[in-house]
Design a protein that fits this description.
The protein has 215 residues and is mostly beta strands. It has three helices and eight strands; from the N terminus they run H-H-E-E-E-E-E-E-E-E-H. An eight-stranded antiparallel β-barrel has the order 1-2-3-4-5-6-7-8.
Length: 215
Amino acid sequence: MSLMAAPDTALGALHNGMRMSQDDFARALEVVTGLPVSLLGFAAVPGGHVADDQQGGHDLTSPVSNLATPTPAAKPSTAHRSYEGVWLSRYQYYSSGREESFAGQHFVVLLQHGDRLTARSLPGSASSSLSLDLTVDGAVVTGTWVEQTDPAGYYRGARYHGAIQLLAEPTGRRMAGKWVGFGKDMDVNTGPWELVFRDASTSKATLDRYNTSAT
């Protein structure tokens, strides 16, 4: 069973008064939903995917622990590097109520349209849901994040959001930087965040395989 299906009403609304090819229509839905076309009831669009391959705030400056990274076959450099695929998202934050630092991890599916990146967490990878909307400018990746916490967890379903800025390594297989956001007392917090590449495929079979706990 797919994670999300394209509703008939959305299909009708986008088709009404427009002449769009199936590829254009599939891409429009992909941009809106943040999900790959393979989960929206469409066949993969040709050329759409890559080949294999922190009262005052708290500033967490300790680096995120090193994560094992895969060593995919080298790809020739291109003018527009593709970051599409499955990534492991890992960030650290300080809980003032518990006076301790914690890490949040999700497997996310990252889609790319030109210089725009959208990432959505796979629901089975964590009890909270995470989304990222980013823009790439050379090695600089900047944007926003939103996290809906677990209703049964410590934060009781609270919704948090903020900004994020990362630097992409030359390999294109890791991005590291910091997040900034507001805490429950409206203090500004920040901490480290990284994304580590896992798989270039966004097929349903691949997403099903990563739709499990990232911890």
